[in-house]
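Design a sequence for this backbone.
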């Protein structure tokens, strides 16, 4: 049975002054809970509170305070534009906006409550019900205005406990990362995970190779962009050789980066898979095999299946389990449409499952499933091959309309000293000929979001 979300957040025996470090600012667990208690007293009874989610101690205090009070926290990206910010504040029903004293917050419809990590108040009220909402997290909005994803306290606790088991994550660890605090990866895993397991947390502010190298952690979180920068700084990468586990997520880790991490640090990274709506559901394990391009096996309690056309080896990944969201806020039709008739969540991701249960994610159904000349082709497979070419730094593959083929394979690459024909032939020698790109476009950089995911819908037309 999963224990309540906040039960293990209380300061343990031997509480240390640097239990939580964010951007160089240190808090003990006792300090954190005292400051969070002051926040809880100010927000109790609110339907929801927005949090100006900069990478600061104030964000951590604000989120924990909201959780203590049983008020759903709504992280707002600090760099969100006026339209996005206004939509989140209005759509979430937040009554207040929590922000640090030094945060520059644009005037808006909500009262701004300034959070002070030095403030103290004891909070003694009972733990809220497990089924109550912990967060309303907003999706990236690639197909319209961002939707509010309601995540329960029960789902968060179940996911963190499953990951602690899979990664052998304990109070003896020091977790290091520099990820944004308005996503599942950086906030739910990267803050609440450390607090729930009792491990020390070092948030580096920015996830630079130098900051990671200097942190002295045993457990590191990063997205592929972070790990790519780390392996380009061999000294920084080698400094991580004493770590117990390097975890990559939020987007597929290119196979060349996987191999370079292994070469420079002496260990293979752990990859995992999840979504805002599901939290983390599939992962390789600390004590198991780690394969390039694979996100491992389902976590305890999670069941998966592949919805594929007859005879096809790949299809949409669907799943069910205790970590799933409670629905899109105020959008019952969208919530209903996210599930199959028999109650499985449609991830929209295209995957294949190997005979031993290892999962590989090959792309998004909307952009990465290419139907060309009667073949169903996963864009991710081609991208990995392109990234294996020594001249290619970044790659994104899409299907573009074609009169004869239905769709033709188009590759966008960041590369030097190589021609379009070189790359087409390279793919044709590594994969089936029908998987080769018909067109290669050279760019200075791929458009990416805050988590480093390529934004294919922002690629220039062919």
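Sequence:
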């Amino acid at each position: 049975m999963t224990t309540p979300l906040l039960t293990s957040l209380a300061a343990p025996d031997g509480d240390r002054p640097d239990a939580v470090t964010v951007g160089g600012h240190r808090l003990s667990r006792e300090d954190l809970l005292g400051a969070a208690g002051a926040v809880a007293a100010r927000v109790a009874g609110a339907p929801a509170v927005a949090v100006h989610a900069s990478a600061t101690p104030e964000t951590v205090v604000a989120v924990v305070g909201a959780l203590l009070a049983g008020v759903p926290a709504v992280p707002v990206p600090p760099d969100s534009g006026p339209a996005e910010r206004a939509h989140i504040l209005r759509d979430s029903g937040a009554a207040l906006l929590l922000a640090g004293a030094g945060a520059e917050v644009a005037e808006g419809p909500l009262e701004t409550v300034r959070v002070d990590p030095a403030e103290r108040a004891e909070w003694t009220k009972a733990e809220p019900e497990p089924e109550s909402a912990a967060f309303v997290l907003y999706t990236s909005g690639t197909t319209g205005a961002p939707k509010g994803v309601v995540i329960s306290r029960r789902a968060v606790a179940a996911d963190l406990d499953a990951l602690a088991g899979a990664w052998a994550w304990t109070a003896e660890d020091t977790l290091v990362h520099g990820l944004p605090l308005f996503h599942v990866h950086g906030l739910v895993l990267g803050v609440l995970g450390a607090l729930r397991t009792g491990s020390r947390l070092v948030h580096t502010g920015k996830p630079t190779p130098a900051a990671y190298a200097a942190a002295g952690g045993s457990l590191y979180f990063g997205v592929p962009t972070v790990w790519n920068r780390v392996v380009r700084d061999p000294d920084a990468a080698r400094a991580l050789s004493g770590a117990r586990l390097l975890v990559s997520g939020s987007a597929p880790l290119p196979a060349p980066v996987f191999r370079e991490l292994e070469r420079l640090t002496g260990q293979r990274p752990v990859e995992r898979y999840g979504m805002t709506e599901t939290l983390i559901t599939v992962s390789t394990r600390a004590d198991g095999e780690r394969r390039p391009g694979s996100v491992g096996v389902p976590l305890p309690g999670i069941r998966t299946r592949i919805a594929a056309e007859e005879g096809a080896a790949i299809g949409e990944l669907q799943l069910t389990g205790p970590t799933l969201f409670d629905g899109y806020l105020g959008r019952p039709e969208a919530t209903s449409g996210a599930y199959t008739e028999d109650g499985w969540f449609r991830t929209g991701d295209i995957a294949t499952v190997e005979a031993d249960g290892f999962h590989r994610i090959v792309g998004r159904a909307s952009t990465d499933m290419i139907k060309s000349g009667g073949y169903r082709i996963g864009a991710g497979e081609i991208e990995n091959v392109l990234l294996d070419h020594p001249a290619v730094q970044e790659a994104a593959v899409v299907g573009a309309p074609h009169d004869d083929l239905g769709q033709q394979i188009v590759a966008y690459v960041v590369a030097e000293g190589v021609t379009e024909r070189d790359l087409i032939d390279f793919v044709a020698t590594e994969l089936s000929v029908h998987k080769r790109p018909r067109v290669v476009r050279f760019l200075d950089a791929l458009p990416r979001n805050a988590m480093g995911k390529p934004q294919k819908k922002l690629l220039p037309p062919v």
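Residues 413 and 442 are 5 Å apart (CA to CA).
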